[in-house]
Each structure stands twice: as C-alpha cells, then as structure tokens.
Specification:
Blueprint (H helix, E strand, L loop, with lengths): L24 H12 L13 E10 L2 E11 L4 E5 L6 H9 L6 E8 L2 E4 L5 H10 L1 E4 L3 H4 L6 H11 L5 H14 L16 H13 L5 E5 L7 H18 L2 E5 L3 H7 L2 E6 L2 E7 H6 L4 H12 L1
Parallel strand pairs: 3-8, 3-9, 6-7, 7-8
Antiparallel strand pairs: 1-2, 1-4, 4-5, 9-10
Length: 300
Amino acid sequence: MFVRIQMPAPKEESRPGILEAGKPKCEVYATMCSSEGCSSLKHEASEPLLQVSKLSHFYGVRIGCADVSLELGAGEVLGIVGESGSGKTTLLRCLSGWQRPSQGQVLINLNGNYVDLYGLEESFRRRLLRTEIGMVFQRAEEGVRMRVSAGGNIGERLMAEGMRHYRNLRDRACQWMERVELDSDRIDDLPTTYSGGMLQRLQLAKNLVTQPRLLFLDEPTTGLDVSVQARLLDLLRRLVRELNLSVVMVTHDLAVARVLAHRLLVMVQGRVVEEGLMDRVLDDPQHPYTQLLVSSRLVA
C-alpha cells in the first residue's frame, strides 16, 4: 500500500552546510583513481532510496527496455553501460520520471514510505521532479533554456518552490555557480555563450539548487575534451560525497563508469545481461557481451 506524503511548505533557507561553497584519456582517469582512490566514493547500506520492479517500455513492437529490476541506496552511484540502442537512455528516462514506462513500478522512498512515481497525481509528481529528482541531459538544450540567463535557469526551480525575493534568488544562483566551478560574474550571460563543459556544470547547478536526493546523468562527458571530462568527473565525485547523492549514470565509456560508479549494470537490446559491483564486473565479466566490452576497452 502506498502512502501519500504531504510535501513540506517551501522554504527559502537552505539545509545546514549545503551552500558552503594533454595526457591520454586513460592516464587522466588512472591518475584520478590513484590520487583519491575510486573507492573513496563510499556509501553506507541503508533502506534503498529507489526500488524498481519489472520495468519495461516499448516503442510499438520494438523493445526500449524490458523487465528491469534494481535498487539504489543513499549515496550510491549506479552506472549503466551498453552500446548505442541498448536501451540505457530509455531506462534512465523511465527511472527519472521523464517517460512513463509501459509496465512496471518506480518506487521512491519518501520519509520511510515508498511511493510509486507514476501512480501519483500529476501535480505531486511534477513537484518531486523539482525537489527530489535531478536530471542532467546529454544534450544541454533539453535541460537548459538557452534564451534565459544562467542565473535565470538556476532560479527557475527556486521560484517554482515559492522563492520570490530577487536578491535571494540571485545570491543562491551565484553560490551554486561557484559550487560547480562556474564564474559567478557570468550569471547574466546566456547559455549560448557557454562551452559544452560549462553547460553541463550549469545543468548541475540548476538541478542541485533545490537539493534533490536523486540525480540522473545521461552521458555527462560525451563530446567534451579529455581535460574537461576529468574536471567534470572530479566535480561530480565531490558533489556525490558532500551531498550524499544517489546517482544513476548512463555512459558508453567504461573509464568514466570506473571513476564514478559503485555498481555497474550492462544492457544489450533493452535487457540487463549482467550487474554487480564495479570491480567484479570489469575484472571478472561473466556475460559474453560484457567480456567483449571489457576486452575492446583494453585493446583501445
């Protein structure tokens, strides 16, 4: 039985402490892992924040994703890998509330009670998408309004939650720009003047300003220079630790997955063929496709 949760009234103040504000690719990522250790992203076992049961989505007769079940704990990072067309982005959109699945359940833990994301009233679900869930898109144009200033993009979620004081909105936007390593002097600039890496950081600031517990990342490093990728990954690792974020990340790059994720899920033709702890899956792959994926990466 699902319990309807009364959302707290919007507040302008933040949670305590929240706002204190060319090597080859393989070498860059290896340095990141060895300097802090990929195991530095630790999470403690607790009641799962996200529970997914037999989730499927179909495009007519074509399978987007089929019969996917998973759990995600607080502070845990789950990587989803697979070739293009394997269904990983479809699965991510269904998990994050952006695409209603054909069947299955997506349960989110709110104050100890699990609610079905797609069984809620639309107004309540939309509010969850602003407060409890963040989504960073591969194409920044999907997550950022390109004709609205950077500060305006960040402030939109706060305004939707009731904040109206201009100075408070601007101050909060500046704080989050600095937190994601963007120059706050560019708060009034349009996103069209930002580089690819800056747009990904702007998406992070826009999503995290309302302090969600769940963050979904769709190919966050695709198309970025190696040095920009490394800086973005370092920022993501830091934010996961500081905010105790639970993250689901889609990527085709095993090096990116190894840097960020605790667990890995491998998809082929819409189905999960292997899952487990990151090191176990990459060091001892069991499924033939995972073995091919890992060996191809080693050859590359």
